[in-house]
Amino acid sequence: MQKKVLIIGAGVIGCAVARGLSRYQIDLTVLERGHDVCEGASKANSGIVHAGFDAKPGTMKARLNVEGSQQYESFCRELGVPYSQPGAMVLAFSDEEMETVQRLYQQGIENGVKELSVLTAAEVLALEPNVNKEVRGALLAKTSGLVSPYELTYALADHAALNGAHFIFNQEVSCIEKANGGFVVKTQDTRYEADVVINCSGVSSAMLHNQLSDDKREIIYRRGQYWLLDHDVNRLFTMTMFQCPSKMGKGVLVSPTVHGNILLGPTAEDIPDSRDTDTTAEGLANVLRTAKKTWPGISTRTGITNFSGIRAHEKNDDFLVGPVSGVPGAYETVGIESPGLTSAPAIARLLVGTIAENEHLTQKADFKPAIPLPKPFNEMNDDERRQAIAENPLNGKLICRCEVVTEAEIRAAIRRPVGATSIDGVKRRTRAGMGRCQGGFCSPRVAEILSEELGIPMTEVTKSGNSSKLLVGRLEDSYAEV
Amino acid sequence: MAAYGIDVDILIVGAGPAGLAAAVAAKETGIDNLVVLEREDHPGGILRQCIHNGFGLHRYNEELTGPEYAQRDIDKAEALGIDIRCGTTVLSVEADHTVTAVSTARGLETYKAKAIIMAMGCRERPRGAIGIPGARSAGIYTAGTAQKFVNLEGFMPGKRIVILGSGDIGLIMARRMTLQGAKVLACVELMPYSSGLKRNIVQCLDDYGIPLYLSHTVTNIEGGDRLTGVTVAKVDEHRMPIPGSEIHFDCDTLLLSVGLIPENELSNQAGLEISPFTSGPVVNDVFESSVPGIFACGNVLHVHDLVDYVSQESTEAGKAAAEYIRRESFNGKTVAVQDGNGVRGTVPQKILLDEDKKVNLMFRPSGVFEKAQAIVTQGDTVLVKKRAQIFTPGEMVVIPLDTTKLAGEDPVKVSIEKV
After folding, report:
1. What is the number of structural domains in chain B?
2. Integer Cα distance of B167 and B394 in angstroms
3. Shortest Cα distance from A211 to chain B (angstroms)?
């Protein structure tokens, strides 16, 4: 009989671990409290693949960051996920901050980060002319990269599903109990039995850890708010611009995204509620005020949206990755905050290796490689577009004009192994509605396509699962009430 | 390479009221090789979802609904045998007049046009552009998206509604949702005046007892999966919320009517000079942009109050594009038109001094001016004056200028002054 393995959480870590374990002969299930994969911190972060100079030498954070960063390019290439490595700078605006830059440089060297250098003000401005002229110098990290965190997570989930992993959504795990040499995992409405459990539950990871272990942990919910600006046609910044870090984190960055937008943020606010992803007027104003130091010409005139994510900050300020001490069959990743996205390949490799060894797992003979996503229509040349329409005429039907997304692409996103089931799911998989009109034109059409593909009435189509329905009813029903 | 490069005389991007009027006008002057590309599956543009009446008062001296108004242009175009290709999205327009478009029916096509008319219309400003903080729940729509759901698809987007912004679509939707049984709790406007037409304030808010909160804004959006409420606060003269003035509304829907932006991505691609004041192309009095042979008209040029004026302007643009093909250019001396005190975004920005004519100068006041006059001057000479009881940003001002009055090539300035 195959071992029943249960992963709790379908963020980037849960999906990376699932994808790694899908190589083995096991019965693999992933439980997720959201309505889709990548619904927590994994979808709402800076999308930076950090070089690894920030973390304290000797910590798991430092080790996994540097390893992850080195694995990223091939990790993304295998999955067909866009990744670029434009580099990053940590800007200094005072003598004191120049000392910090020197310290980060030394720390980076100690952590094993390659291609680090310290730049003079003139060198900074030659590379990035839109940086504040008062800059005194900077740390340059050429290996800093960019990735779309949700595109990566979707690709990991698809690959895991392609190899038999089973995803169950809207399942919030409340407890893990040891039973009959295995575990019973309870959600709000269902009981799951498993031989092996893996806690990848982000903000809930300490709560589940504490149910199994006497070595108590505490997660602090640290919210980060962001502004997303439209495509930066002028290439105002080519690299990620950090300011000097504080004890709350890496500070506010100004960065291009892998898709060429500009991202500003995040704040770092400790809050009591792990689900409170509201943005606030103060938080957003704070981002602008702080980012202005990096980019004096800042403007939100091209603002597309604002959003926030919750970092799972562990009180001891390090990642906990591995077997739950004294509980055979239980594994965990606790306190995965930045650089968690960067560390994902390394965390998955470490944990999957440990689990395979401890649990004596056997590799499948028929493990399927990932099927890379087709090139987006938006990035095709005319000949490729002609070909794409010849293959599927629905590629000739543009649904999202801002981001140039076709009906064929939207239908394909819904039909992926772990497909989109909501407007936001389509948006993050295809970029339809991600542009400057924010779905004003395309969302009614996307809703229709979802309704057709999922076989549900329009009134059941949601923005982001559960009760987030777009429409409250049909017009004729409202006549009946009047 | 035979499939590439379809040669046409005039290519029009968009079959809304602007594109249709331009096409009809060009065809009537004798241009036969004309094609209109429309991304939707039907011509008519946004008028198709504007099922209220009030269209055509100036042009037809009748009150038509949006679809009726559009149908008259569609019928004319069909009678003239104009080739309207629906379901066709233009992907790029180049300064050398190459246009690339895709459709399911014909795949990817490349057109080469002697003249191009940009008639893409405008889009609504979304939440992100104004940066309202709070939850990102379902139930937040631009007024036009909600209008599409209700009028074209037959669905109710919500039951208890707050509207931010008093643009015309928001006002029309306040009435529409009320008639459909929804409760519209408030219309909230940041500015001390409405950006909508007076008649819409009266007919869509006042007649239904919907309060209009001027100098107020939405300061927070609350909700989980679905919107549950919004906080509204009064703003000071710097448009900053005044602490303590908050009002809370329990609602499931927030409609945004916070401005329209000409949709000029294709114009930018083609390298057309764009005015920071209108957000549309800079044009001369025949609606030719900074790129010779590429014209712009309707809401892509500047946002109009009434479709009647869109049609009028686009008819001129259609004729001009035809004339451009005959003449091969509109070379010649020009006079610049500048915005003076109290004036924002005058169109056209240039007047060709090729012949004597009447040119309509169109602009929006930059604020509210009571008992004032709009004046057009060249140097110290006053060319035209137009008095009004009130000028507001919500209503476009049109001043006809007789070019025989122009002396030399000094710029013309349009201003508003107290009388």
Report:
1. 3
2. 8
3. 28
